[in-house]
Specification:
38% of the residues lie in helices and 13% in strands. By secondary structure, the protein is α/β, with parallel strands linked by helices. It comes from Cryobacterium algoricola.
């Protein structure tokens, strides 16, 4: 894997283009994202026609799903109740890491951030820990995780539409963006973007969750696009210091300063219990999808003029 193959292809967006940013947020976050977009679609606004879709972690899965199937079909699948299962960190392939539940995983992230000098140092430290965990992992874990991710995707092929899937190189800490020109299978790109409990290997390179790149949204990649819609299951929250400039609010300010019009959608506060520490509770997916659908239906009218 060459560095030049895992970065955006450098084509500058033309004015008046639209970008859809799909943030990370675990299993319930993925369901909420699908719900919001299905709600918008049902009310007459199709944002899946964006000129650029940026997907991170659960948002990477959603990006691949929404470019391969209709919002209505994806919503119907998300509304099907599934049995509860033990919480595991997003992207761990259904297995527990040495840190155990999601709450322990988040606490480990807090410790890494507290010990890091800056964002680059944070990514290097996070990658080193992921590689250390990976050294003692089940050798079949990667194959199982890829199969799990691939089964969630309506198509195994990159869409013609411009889609960015974020990740971080675990060996170097370098931010990575996969697209259809990267020479990486779509399922591998999504699996890497969701790998927060271990390092996922692609052609000799090893990668971790795209949320480590800057934040769960990576909205800065939409720079230069006239209209940017950001869907954030985590509500724009971040563990990094504000002065690092990685928070979604900072990125939105940067986009607006560059001439972009930006709208954001966060889960309503009454649904907070569906996210955060409960983000990997698959039994909560139907509730999260319904919350998202309701929000999308309500916001559609306001966003019609913005998107058109």
């Amino acid at each position: 894997m060459h560095d030049t193959a895992t970065t955006p292809n450098g084509v500058s967006p033309r004015p008046s283009r639209t970008a859809l940013v799909l943030g990370g947020g675990g299993s319930t976050g993925n369901a909420w994202l699908i719900g919001v977009i299905a709600g918008l679609y049902d009310a007459g606004l199709d944002v899946t026609d964006a000129d650029l879709i940026i997907g991170t972690s659960a948002g990477a899965t959603a990006a691949a799903q929404l470019t391969g199937a209709s919002p209505a079909d994806l919503l119907a699948a998300a509304l099907v109740a599934v049995p509860p299962r033990s919480a595991v960190p997003a992207g761990s392939g259904g297995r527990r890491t040495q840190s155990g539940p999601v709450t322990d995983h988040l606490e480990r992230r807090r410790r890494i951030v507290a010990a890091a000098e800056d964002a680059a140092d944070m990514r290097r430290k996070t990658g080193a820990i992921a590689l250390d965990l990976d050294a003692t992992s089940d050798p079949l874990a990667q194959a199982r995780w890829r199969a799990t991710v691939a089964a969630r995707l309506p198509s195994q092929h990159w869409p013609a539409q411009r889609v960015f899937i974020t990740a971080v190189n675990a060996d170097t800490g370098a931010p990575v963006v996969f697209d259809r020109h990267s020479g990486v299978d779509l399922a591998d790109a999504v699996a890497a973007s969701c790998a927060s409990g271990f390092a996922y290997g692609i052609d000799g390179g090893r990668y971790i969750d795209g949320g480590y790149r800057s934040n769960a949204e990576n909205a800065d990649l939409a720079a230069g696009y006239e209209r940017v819609l950001v869907l954030s299951p985590f509500g724009g929250r971040a563990l990094t210091p504000v002065e690092w400039g990685l928070h979604l609010a900072s990125q939105v300010d940067m986009l607006r300063a560059g001439g972009s019009r930006v709208e954001t959608i966060f889960p309503e506060s009454s649904a907070d219990h569906l996210f955060g520490a409960n983000a990997m509770d698959a039994s909560s997916r139907p509730a999260a999808a319904q919350v998202g659908f309701n929000q999308g239906s309500i916001r559609a009218g306001r966003l019609m003029e913005f998107w058109s």
